[in-house]
């Protein structure tokens, strides 16, 4: 049977064999991707997030996606460090979480990432906040965009600089503050909230600076993933799109959050 097949193939022209081989390789590649997706979506066992450490840091934790993360992580038994600008909102969110999950320990950090005070300050503030705590999870969620669509040359200097400070510098500096502890413990997970504006869409006109900062977050995540996987630290970038609420799915709480995203690396 095998020799009959081989003989038949040997009678075929070279160009046909070449094209058939390319088609077969392409089929194998697509099938592998599909099987991987089926495994990741339906079969992969749940992770116990506490294996990364008992504390989670969430920036921009008083609204939207950050707030949803805070509730879900408290439900999973993690203690929280919530970072945001408004102390009253931080108090309210903490009370809500404590009412639902009374055993949760919560620390709050009030910081305005867009403040003109050197953004280096947030690094120091966060280093202090995480000192002595077993922080296993960092959710770099804080992010802002334009109040309304604008052509690039019309964007107000303050809006521009605020976006760069919050989305780009804030994310980098909080990561820089939290990483050394993770490296020491040889475990941790960093989830950066990107945006479909920089990846799903081929371009995102009229929100150019926002989209560009999110492309930074995407590439930052990819590079950190490669740099730190040897320390047992996982990094992923979730590319969300137009969601107001982002609930974590029960099975793949970090890799698949229920909102649209592209996972750079799977935790
Ligand atoms: N929602 C979407 O449709 C969507 C789509 C794509 C990507 N994203 C990304 O997802 C992330 C969260 O978006 P979201 O819509 O959930 O946000 P949101 O509802 O607007 O909430 C923003 C959070 O960030 C905090 N924050 C804003 N400016 C801050 C500053 N200067 N300093 C400190 N904290 C600040 C707010 O705290 P205060 O209340 O204290 O101000 C609030 O907790 C962002 O990175 C965003 O770019 C969202």
From TrEMBL:
Keywords annotated in UniProt: Membrane, NADP, Oxidoreductase, Transmembrane, Transmembrane helix
Keyword Nucleus annotated: no
Transmembrane region(s): 15-40
Pfam families (alphabetical): adh_short
Presence of keyword Transmembrane helix: yes
GO molecular function: oxidoreductase activity
InterPro entries linked: NAD(P)-bd_dom_sf, SDR_fam, VLCFA-Steroid_DH
Highest taxon in the source lineage: Eukaryota
Entry's family note: Belongs to the short-chain dehydrogenases/reductases (SDR) family.
The name this protein goes by in its record: Uncharacterized protein
Source organism per UniProt: Populus trichocarpa (Western balsam poplar)
